[in-house]
């Protein structure tokens, strides 16, 4: 078995195809891993620890899957790029007129605050730093069947996705300070007139999409102004509200729900993101840039009490192209009603 075949089997262990039995995929991946490295699945733990190279092919698979996963989730508004470890991370801005690409917004040096700077020849320099996703799954547990390769890789992928989501939302919120007055509005609840005005501005740059969190997404509706009509809402909207709790299109503009996360999973009282903002972005533009630099690597870290966790390290950075083609709407009703202060 060669490395390409092994990597395909490892990717298969992460497949969401319901027609293929998960246990079969997992068993085939573990057997292939052992065969490739000449490792006995029942090998002594000391032997496994002496050969950390066993995880190198898993590192390669994660590096290949991660940009694909992020593109599937964030591809509508984020451009995912990979750079070599010794390569300068410079993003080339293309197909944007001079008046529409005035500056880029990148993390500042102090406290992660974002700063804006003029683009130099349509190139945006992005600083990277090392991020770490830690999971309590090690190779011994995988080979003994106590944990799965899918557990390991999915936990790592979800951890990195979570971190990148936080960085992207922090960057997008800078629009509230940096965008022109015509590109931002606020009111209690979802004010149709304000939303429509923002959509009109962004429509000048392309087909707009509204990105918002669940709280605000549930407030959008397509009620008609004729009170004598019953129902005064599309039957399709009624079905969507019944099935999903919200409509997927507002007056012709698609609505995409941004996921939120519980920071406190004990009391379920603290969310990561404030849900008061909605971002309106043209389909032709991807204002967010996510840059990966070099390769990721896995390292088992032992704890003082005898436990161990597997850490995945990767260098990455985020930035936002401030092109006057994005808008932000703030629902002050959500902002004031949030009992537990979100982190971001």
Topology (SSEs and partners):
Elements: H1 3-12, H2 22-37, H3 45-49, H4 56-74, E1 78-83, E2 90-92, E3 103-107, E4 114-118, E5 123-125, E6 129-135, H5 139-143, H6 149-173, H7 175-178, E7 184-187, H8 192-203, E8 208-212, H9 214-217, H10 235-244, E9 249-250, E10 253-257, E11 277-282, E12 288-302, E13 308-322, E14 327-331, H11 332-337
Parallel strand pairs: 1-12, 7-14, 8-10
Antiparallel strand pairs: 2-5, 3-4, 3-13, 6-13, 8-11, 9-10, 11-14, 12-13
Helix pairs in contact: 1-2, 1-4, 4-6
Describe the protein in words.
The chain has 344 residues and is α+β, with helices and mostly antiparallel strands. It is built from 11 helices and 14 strands. Strands 1, 3, 4, 6, 12 and 13 form a 6-stranded mixed β-sheet that branches. The chain is globular. The N and C termini lie far apart (47 Å).
Keywords summarizing the entry:
single chain, 344 residues, alpha+beta, six-stranded mixed beta sheet, 11 helices, 25% strand
Percentage of residues in strands: 25-35%
Overall mean confidence score, pLDDT: 77
Which class do the helix and strand fractions yield? alpha+beta
**Helical amount:** 25-40%
- Terminal Cα span: 47 Å
Using the CA coordinates, give the radius of gyration.
23 Å
Q: Characterize the overall form.
A: globular
Number of helices: 11
Order of helices and strands: HHHHEEEEEEHHHEHEHHEEEEEEH
Main pleated sheet: 6 strands, mixed
Number of E strands = 14
Name the assembly state.
Answer: single chain
Uncertain segments:
97-102
Q: Could you give a short description of this structure?
A:
With 344 residues, this protein is an alpha+beta fold. The protein has helices spanning 3-12, 22-37, 45-49, 56-74, 139-143, 149-173, 175-178, 192-203, 214-217, 235-244, 332-337, and strands at residues 78-83, 90-92, 103-107, 114-118, 123-125, 129-135, 184-187, 208-212, 249-250, 253-257, 277-282, 288-302, 308-322, 327-331.
């Amino acid at each position: 078995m060669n490395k390409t075949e092994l990597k395909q089997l490892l990717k298969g262990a992460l497949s969401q195809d319901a027609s293929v039995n998960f246990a079969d995929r997992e068993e085939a991946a573990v057997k292939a891993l052992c065969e490739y490295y000449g490792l006995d699945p029942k090998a002594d733990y000391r032997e496994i620890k002496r050969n950390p190279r066993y995880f190198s092919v898993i590192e390669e698979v994660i590096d290949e899957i991660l940009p694909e996963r992020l593109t599937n989730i964030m591809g509508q508004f984020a451009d995912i790029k990979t750079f070599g470890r010794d390569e300068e991370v410079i993003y080339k801005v293309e197909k944007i007129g001079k008046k529409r690409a005035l500056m880029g917004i990148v993390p500042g040096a102090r406290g992660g605050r974002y700063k804006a700077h003029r683009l130099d020849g349509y190139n945006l320099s992005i600083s990277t730093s090392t991020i770490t996703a830690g999971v309590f799954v090690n190779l011994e547990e995988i080979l003994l069947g106590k944990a799965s390769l899918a557990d390991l890789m999915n936990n790592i992928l979800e951890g990195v996705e979570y971190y990148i989501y936080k960085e992207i939302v922090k960057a997008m919120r800078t629009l509230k300070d940096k965008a022109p007055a015509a590109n931002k509005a606020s009111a209690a609840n979802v004010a149709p007139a304000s939303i429509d005005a923002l959509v009109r501005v962004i429509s000048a740059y392309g087909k707009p999409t509204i990105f918002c969190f669940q709280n605000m997404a549930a407030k959008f509706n397509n009620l008609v102004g004729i009170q004598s009509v019953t129902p005064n809402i599309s039957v399709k909207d009624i079905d969507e509200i019944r099935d999903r709790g919200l409509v997927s299109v507002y007056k012709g503009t698609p609505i995409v729900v941004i996921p939120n996360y519980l920071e406190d999973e004990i009391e379920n009282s603290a969310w990561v993101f404030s849900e008061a903002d909605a971002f309106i972005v043209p389909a032709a533009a991807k204002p967010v840039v996510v840059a990966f630099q070099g390769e990721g690597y896995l390292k088992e870290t032992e704890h003082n009490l005898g436990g161990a966790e597997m850490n995945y390290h990767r260098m990455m950075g985020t930035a936002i192209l401030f092109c006057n083609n994005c808008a932000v709407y703030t629902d002050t009703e959500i902002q004031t009603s949030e009992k537990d202060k979100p982190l971001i």
